[in-house]
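TL;DR need C-alpha cells for one chain.
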Amino acid sequence: MDLGIKSKNAIVFGASSGLGKATANSLASEGCNLTLISRDQEKLDILSKEITKAHQVNIDYFIADLTKNQDVDQLLSGLIDRKYDILINNTGGPPPSNLSNTSENVWDVFIRSLLSNTIRITNSLIPNMIQKKWGRVITVTSSGVIQPIDNLLVSNTLRPAITGFMKTLSNEVAKYGVTVNTIMPGRITTERTLEVNTQRAKELGISYDEAISISSQEIPMRRYGTPEEFANILCFLVSEKASYINGSNIRVDGGLIRSI
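>> reply
TL;DR here they are.
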C-alpha cells in the first residue's frame, strides 16, 4: 500500500532509541525525509547513517534535551526556516513515581518536557502546515491516559494533560487539512520496559524475567508488543490514507486497556 507520504518532511523527537527510533525507520521506509531529535548525539549519528544507507532519504539531526528550556530555545531557533509536514512528539517517560518519593523538582522537569515544551514545539511548527493546508501531528502518550499505571504518578498526571491540548488543537486546525492525533502505546519492549519492570521486580522480590512474565499475562495477547508494530500504526496515521482520522486517541496495546 502506498501511504502517499514519499518526500514529505518529518521531524521525530526521541528518535535515538525505542519507539522514536522505530518510527524514524518506518517513516524513512515510506520515503520521508527526516530530522531526528534526541539528547544522544552518538546514537543519532549512527542511526542517521543506517537510515541513509537503507532508504536513501535526506536526513539530519539536532541534539536537544526537552527538560531544558534553553535547549528548546536553541532548537526552535535552528528550525525557524524549516517547513515540516509531519511532527512526531515523543518524550521520555518519567521515572517510577508515587506520592512519597516524588520531589517538586521531578514535577518541574517533566512538566517542562511532557507538557510546556511539547506545546511550544507544536505551536512553532504547525503554522506552516496550516499555510500549506496539509499536515500531521502525532503525540506519543501512554495507556496510562485511560487506565492509570501503578507507580507512575507523574506520567499518569501529565500525559492526560497533553492529550487534552492535542484534542483541542485538532478541533482548531482540521479545517486546514491538518490532523492531530495521539497514540497510546501499551507494554512495548523498549528501554522503558527495562526500567519499569526492574523496579517492579525489586518491589515484589522476584527476578526481572518473572516480572515480565507476570506483566505479559495481564495482556490479552500474552506478550509485549514490538517497537516496529507500534511504528507501523503511527506511520499509517500520518499517511494520506488516514486523512479522516482526527482528534483520536489510538490504542496500540494488545488489548491491555480493559475499558470500551
